[in-house]
């Protein structure tokens, strides 16, 4: 090849970072994450079965969707790759709750994040609403994976009043 040959690669990724990464099915463990039916899930059970003389060992995954709590299952040959979601957890301070069910959060950089709805989980929703009504300073943990975000935990900072 000469020095004048140029190679152009087209990227199908949006904004650089991929939402998932490949990992061999046999290396995924209980407590890890996996994508099943295009949903990010936390693995709650893994069992590996040996098959016949010419077959592959298979991994049976039982996992819970990290956003809606639904149980999903998948069976994958242990030598094949599975998609694993990039799961991120970020803490923000709660500033306000709007009438239409959105929260206003303070980021570390001092900006506000106003695009998250209140969680649908009744216990978590109750903790956030009563804590906010009582004037407590609340920190909300937001989990994000595969382009979705959801409030997953709440904690109070300071002693309150």
Automatic annotation (TrEMBL):
CDD domains with a match to the protein in the record: S1_eIF5A
Entry similarity comment: Belongs to the eIF-5A family.
Report the protein name in the record.
Answer: Eukaryotic translation initiation factor 5A
Q: Which gene encodes it?
A: LOC123188864
**Gene3D superfamilies named among the record's database cross-references:** 2.30.30.30, Nucleic acid-binding proteins
Instruction: Say which species the protein is native to.
Output: Triticum aestivum (Wheat)
**Region described as Disordered: spans on this chain:** 1-24
- Residue ranges, compositional bias (Basic and acidic residues): 1-13
- UniProt keyword Protein biosynthesis present: yes
Can you give the residue ranges of the Translation initiation factor 5A C-terminal domain?
86-155
């Amino acid at each position: 090849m000469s020095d004048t040959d140029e190679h152009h690669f087209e990227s199908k990724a949006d904004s650089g970072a991929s939402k998932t990464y490949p990992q061999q099915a046999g290396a995924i463990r209980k407590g890890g994450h996996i994508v099943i039916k295009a949903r990010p899930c936390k693995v709650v059970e893994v069992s590996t079965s040996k098959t016949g003389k010419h077959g592959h060992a298979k991994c049976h995954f039982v996992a819970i969707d990290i956003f809606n709590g639904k149980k999903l299952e998948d069976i994958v040959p242990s030598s094949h790759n599975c998609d694993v979601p990039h799961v991120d957890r970020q803490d923000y301070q709660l500033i306000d709750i709007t009438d239409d069910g959105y929260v206003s959060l303070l980021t570390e950089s001092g900006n506000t994040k106003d695009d998250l709805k209140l969680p649908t989980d009744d216990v978590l929703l109750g903790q956030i609403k009563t804590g906010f009504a009582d004037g407590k300073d609340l920190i909300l943990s937001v989990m994000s994976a595969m382009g979705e975000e959801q409030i997953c935990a709440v904690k109070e900072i300071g002693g309150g009043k």
